[in-house]
Give the backbone structure.
Amino acid sequence: MSFGNKMYVSALVFCIVISVARCSGNLGFPPGFKLGVATASYQVEGAWNVSDKGESIWDRLLHTQPSLSADGSNGDVACDSYHLWRRDIEMAVELGVDMYRFSISWPRLLPSGFANYVSEDGKRYYNNLIDGLLEKGIEPVVTLYHWDLPQYLQDLGGWANPLIVDWFADYARVAYTLFGDRIKTWLTLNEPLIICDGGYNKLWAPYLDDLKVAAFLCNKNVMMAHAKAYRMYDEEFRPLYQGKVSFPNIFFWFEPETPADAEAAVLTRQMWHDRYAHPVFSQAGGWPPELEKVLLANGKREGYPYPRLPPFTQEEINYVKGTYDFYALNHYTTRLVRRVKPGEAGSWIFYGSEEINVAIVNDPSWTTAVTDWFAINPTGLRKQLHWINSTYGISDILITENGLPTFEKDLLDVNRITYIRSYLEQILLAINDGINVMGYTAWSLMDNFEWLAGYTVKYGLYDVDFTSPNRTRTPRESARYFSNLTKTRTLTDDNIYYLRNVTKNTKALKTLAIMEC
Ligand code: BG6
């Protein structure tokens, strides 16, 4: 070993000792804590027009405007999980996970979008996947809607049309009826923020530009649709199957840049989180009150005759309130918030900073991942778990997504391991603080179609060769790390994993020593 490497090893051992000491509190996963991996239908299934599958809004968008995705690609084939689902299950087995989160493609199960006709082929596909997982002792966790709306329903107004509340409930009933005997955890709508604020801000399909009105109509409809699907399960299916229902909220953790920005941070959380949480999780229900006032005043000033954010009636408030069995959280990153300076315009990737006059910025001390929106700040997750707990009085929280994007095909993905481990550490610290984090689902099982980033961005524990007809899947080092983790169930031991495995490689050693210290 060269002198340079010896230095790295010493530095590394020092870091590990410190880290073990820091972790020596209690960083074993509590009994019952579940580890899992996640995917979503359009991102992995492919087979976009096989059998009688209907067209989705993503099929339509990328067939008509292919240049919208970074590499001109689409999800026509993706990981071909429609054909390769056995290999997906095998990978979940290799990882030793307790649960696998996937989504049902609405137009694969209901080709017309409506419950008038259920596809036999769609039924067969999801039955195979569910049964295959259960045979291996892996719990299937099902998302009903991960953004692939049937195009026909979009033509009828999509999420801006209040009738979609019934259309979604009909679809949910079909799924509960077909698969409810075997699914114990249902997630209704993945990240409603992306459905509305992304879909009507030309960031995601249907790629419309209608933020002032349609996005807010969508806000109310997604909350009502979730509530209806929850209440239907509660009344008709829970007595039979005793499952649980919630929906994953994406939540950038927002911290005030200075103590003077505390109020701006509250309004920011109301804008991009509570709009999709307060109606369901708060004691009072309805929209977050300060934000509702601000939006009403802005709309009046602009001459709108009606509130753009449609008010809930008291009956609707009561209907939506409390429609959860746990809090499902997709967490990736943190942002700083400050009031805009005089003359400065509010700005952020999502619409709304100009409505509430805030600027969303990065702390320069945080490392960023390859995509500019992604700042790495693990402690933000622990703060956020506390915030959810204290704001809504909820202790049962399931982390339904967390993971690191890279551009490289690199099989030795030390950065991803470090990211996952550091976020898990914050989860375990939160558990030790008394919050019942029920489990952790890594995004993603494998590289997949990352929406408008196409195949340029990778989140996979498994690399996928998108040039091979077999879409060959190869485990990255992070897959080995994760399978070690599912065996040892402690973060203290996984430091030893580093020493024994990852650090055999000089490049990894260097990266790790730098990142750790
Ligand atoms: C989550 C989504 O918000 O982020 C996933 O639920 C997505 O579907 C993941 O793949 C990564 O996001 P992005 O924008 O980097 O592709």
